Amino acid sequence: MTRKQPGVIVLVVAVPWLVRPSAVLVAATVAGLVVVITAIRCWALTRPVSFGHATALPRTWWWRRQVREVWPDVAAARGLDVHGLPELRSIAGLWPHMRVTVRPVRGQMIEEYDAAGPALQTALGIARVRCEPRGFRDVVLHLTVGDDLRRPFAATARADVLDLSSLPLGRTERGETWRLPLGPHTLVAGSSGSGKGSVFWSIAFALAGAVREGRVLLHGIDLKGGMEVLMGRELFSTTATDAGTAVASLEHLVTLMRERNLAYAGKVRSHRPSTAEPLHVVMIDELAALTAYSTERDLQRRAEAAINLLCSQGRATGFVFIACLQDPRKEVIPSRGLFTQTIGLRLKDASETAMVLGDSAATTGAACHRITRDVPGTAYVVPEDGGPALRVRAGYASDDAIRNVAQRFATSTHLDVPPLAVDDSVRRPRRPARDTTADQEAS
């Protein structure tokens, strides 16, 4: 019995050594897979654009198969196959933007394919479908498969923005930087909670470097008691939190504009921002509180007159107007036509989308009324070249970020606004006529 003990001991000692290589190999493989998956996940979250480019080919191949499989069912559900299934002629482009060319059956109109867009979007689970004609017979469906705009990102202050004609505000659906032209008077419309503050502060952050240098003066008007503007008051040369102060500030800017107009007459046709002659940017949070909801009719009338003057005459001499509001109806903002650049955040219905961006934008894919509540700051804009509406998102500015930027880029120029002048054009109520008959009888 004792002679077998060495052999048993050798066997007992040798078995773990025989098993260990496979166990170590399995553990190493699992650990390697975990590291690779984690690295890929981090890459996708932190660098979505480069990750998308690297994986574009396999994703494109998979999504093309999905489109071909889903198209017959969508066409049948929308009644497009009554006289035969419309032919899918080609699927071009790379993920996440693909172009599906369809040959309609005779008698069909492009409006029918516009109506089928949401069904195709739901069937594929994609972000957006936009329809446009090609030539005289074909229809092109532009598919935006991935939605990089769903991930929020922080707004950042820019000290290196030298060209003030175009401001970086966020991202586009194509993964590019969203640049907003500064010069056209801009109207930002969106329902409550749609992210107007994100656009408001992204513009202020983009101008922060020029504000600190003195090339730009910001004028903030916030009739909600200053909840928005006063958070970063150091950035603004003037602030107004009540109707009277707001009207006084606007009328003072009209005076400055007229003085500059006289100085430029016959000498200069366009303004270039400088420390001697800065660009004045008026930023209003909730414009309707000043132009429609005010109970003081005189202040309302004077505010509308000042806004009309600044918007119609101020661009060439360096006065730019940026206004946010919830209700885009004409009776709420009579001077809506003077705002040549509009940003449509989440709105109530298609009619409001047409009010803000125009009928043509609504028919080329702008769907502000379909923006969900969980993506504040997401909007549609119409490019300057008049092309199809572009889906964009502005960065999010937290309270701490606003305070930090306001302290770092505080303006050194503060303007003294004269008190509100009495408008002599408003007739005061006359005193009742005195009864002279009673006086004569008394005498």
UniProtKB/TrEMBL annotation:
SUPFAM superfamilies: P-loop containing nucleoside triphosphate hydrolases (SSF52540)
Region (Disordered): 422-443
Record's compositionally biased regions (Basic and acidic residues): 424-437
Keyword ATP-binding part of the UniProt annotation: yes
Gene3D superfamilies per record: P-loop containing nucleotide triphosphate hydrolases (3.40.50.300)
Highest rank taxon of the organism: Bacteria
Keywords in alphabetical order: ATP-binding, Nucleotide-binding
Sequence positions that bind ATP: G190, S191, S192, G193, S194, G195, K196, G197
Domain FtsK as annotated: residue spans: 150-354
Gene Ontology MF annotations: ATP binding; DNA binding
Coiled coil: none
The name this protein goes by in its record: FtsK/SpoIIIE domain-containing protein
Organism classification: Bacteria, Bacillati, Actinomycetota, Actinomycetes, Propionibacteriales
